[in-house]
């Protein structure tokens, strides 16, 4: 009995930031892989494109379609832990927060993760979600296998031994190769992290940047534009015991200050842009140091309730300091009013064709603006700095690059597009965004 839920073309889809709206012919929520495969075959026969969406945390139109929109929330199933193989398998629609909590309850953990866990498993890996780390960062780099429904409705199991060329490409596939139905990750026994968060002047952070990176397992910092203030975060493994933030302190820092008060400050800055530098100085001075030890996923991730738009570029690690100094100088000489901090993270090199860290150690520089505040001039000026340093844009965040630029920026770009041509020659999984970044 077919249990796929289908809705008509009057249903629209909007991403989390409000930057993308899609009006598909129909939206489907298949409950099984067989139902998904049937929907893909039907769409192909009708000449419609197919795109799967998760929770909409990407800022680009990577998942937008005017054809068939696949919602994966029923493609979940149980989280399957293989202790002997040290792997976990989750359905494509499983939210990362569900995966993390299930692993934690069983005594296991991912090695690294990004700073939010609202995304679905498939959505997070498809666009290259990453955290920060000296020797680990990308969620996709932890994949050991995945299952993919391809354009003809076939189910393809991919790993380093089965369909290895597809596996290599599909770990960050942008939804261009098919619809992911499940992902298997390498996991390790649950561990604790000690987090040290400390305010630090900009010049000291960039002056000691490489030492801070190599001296810590996970280092990142936030710089508040219009100020000299930064907040640094150093996370390192700990033998314990656990010493989490007191419940009240955690709520005050992570909910009241980082979300409610910050939301109010952003709203004020949007209404009165001239006040933004003063607000930034107050916010920077309000930072205080804190140290705590907790289960890894609770340290890696934080609630993010203030909505924003974002652009992020990955640069060669050696370009970090000059690019950051150029960014700061650009803001200081401009009339821009930037209410959101700039986030800086790192990653080791990996071998995934469309990974922003493919073949080189990366520094990530992310810029944000509050949703509804002007951002195009700011992002454009930042993008000129990033591309001058051989930057690679995050696939799920705003940028203006196209296939001509990206094919030169990625040494294995042609390898990915060759796999795409083989699996989806008719572009069943195509859309305008993929046409721009991957080529026709």
Describe the structure.
By secondary structure, this protein is α+β, with helices and mostly antiparallel strands. It has 14 helices and 21 strands. The protein has helices at 33-46, 96-106, 121-126, 164-170, 202-207, 209-214, 247-271, 276-285, 296-300, 320-333, 376-388, 403-409, 413-423, 432-438; strands at residues 5-7, 13-14, 21-22, 26-29, 50-52, 68-70, 80-82, 87-91, 108-109, 143-149, 155-159, 179-186, 188-189, 192-201, 218-223, 229-238, 290-295, 308-316, 342-347, 362-370, 392-393. The strands form 5 sheets. The chain has an 8-stranded antiparallel sheet with strand order 17-14-16-15-19-20-18-21. The model has no long low-confidence stretch (mean pLDDT 92). Pathway: Cofactor biosynthesis; L-ascorbate biosynthesis. InterPro entries: ALO_C (IPR007173), FAD-bd_PCMH (IPR016166), FAD-bd_PCMH-like_sf (IPR036318), FAD-bd_PCMH_sub1 (IPR016167), FAD-bd_PCMH_sub2 (IPR016169), FAD_lactone_oxidase-like (IPR010031), Oxid_FAD_bind_N (IPR006094), Oxy_OxRdtase_FAD_BS (IPR006093).
């Amino acid at each position: 009995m077919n249990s796929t839920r289908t809705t008509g073309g009057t249903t629209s889809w909007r991403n989390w930031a409000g930057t993308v709206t899609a009006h598909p012919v129909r939206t489907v929520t298949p409950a099984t892989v067989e139902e998904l495969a049937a929907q893909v075959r039907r769409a192909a026969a009708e000449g419609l494109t197919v795109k799967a969406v998760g929770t909409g945390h990407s800022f680009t139109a990577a998942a937008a379609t005017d054809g068939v929109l696949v919602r994966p929330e029923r493609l979940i199933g149980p989280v399957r832990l293989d202790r002997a193989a040290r792997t976990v398998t989750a359905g494509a629609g499983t939210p990362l927060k569900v995966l993390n909590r299930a692993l934690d309850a069983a005594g296991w953990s991912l090695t690294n993760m990004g700073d939010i866990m609202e995304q679905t498993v498939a959505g997070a890996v498809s666009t290259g979600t990453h955290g920060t780390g000296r020797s680990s960062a990308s969620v996709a780099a932890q994949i050991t296998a995945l299952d993919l429904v391809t354009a003809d409705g076939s189910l393809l199991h991919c790993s380093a031994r089965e369909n290895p060329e597809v596996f290599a490409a599909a770990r960050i596939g942008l939804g261009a190769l098919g619809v992911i139905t499940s992902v298997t990750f390498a996991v390790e026994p649950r561990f604790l992290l000690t987090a040290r968060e400390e305010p630090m002047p900009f010049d000291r952070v960039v002056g000691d940047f490489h030492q801070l990176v190599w001296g810590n397992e996970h280092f990142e910092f936030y710089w508040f534009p219009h100020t000299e203030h930064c907040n640094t975060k150093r996370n390192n493994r700990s033998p314990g015991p656990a010493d989490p933030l007191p419940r009240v302190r955690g709520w005050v820092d992570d909910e009241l200050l980082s979300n409610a008060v910050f939301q109010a400050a952003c709203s004020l800055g949007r209404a009165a842009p001239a006040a933004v530098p003063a607000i930034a100085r107050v916010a920077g001075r309000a930072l205080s140091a804190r140290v705590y030890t907790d289960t890894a996923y609770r340290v890696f991730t934080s609630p993010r309730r203030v909505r924003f738009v974002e652009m992020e570029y990955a640069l060669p690690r050696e370009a970090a300091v000059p690019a950051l100094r150029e960014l700061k100088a650009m803001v200081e000489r401009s009339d821009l009013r930037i209410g959101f901090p700039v986030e800086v993270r790192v990653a080791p090199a990996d071998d995934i064709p469309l990974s922003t860290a493919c073949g080189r150690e990366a520094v990530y520089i992310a810029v944000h603006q509050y949703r509804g505040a002007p951002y195009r001039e700011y992002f454009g000026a930042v993008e000129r700095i990033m591309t001058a340093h051989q930057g690679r844009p995050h696939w799920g965040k705003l940028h203006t690059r196209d296939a001509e630029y990206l094919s030169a920026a990625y040494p294995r770009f042609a390898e990915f597009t060759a796999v795409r041509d083989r699996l989806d020659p008719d572009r069943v999984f195509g859309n305008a965004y993929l046409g721009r970044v991957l080529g026709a």
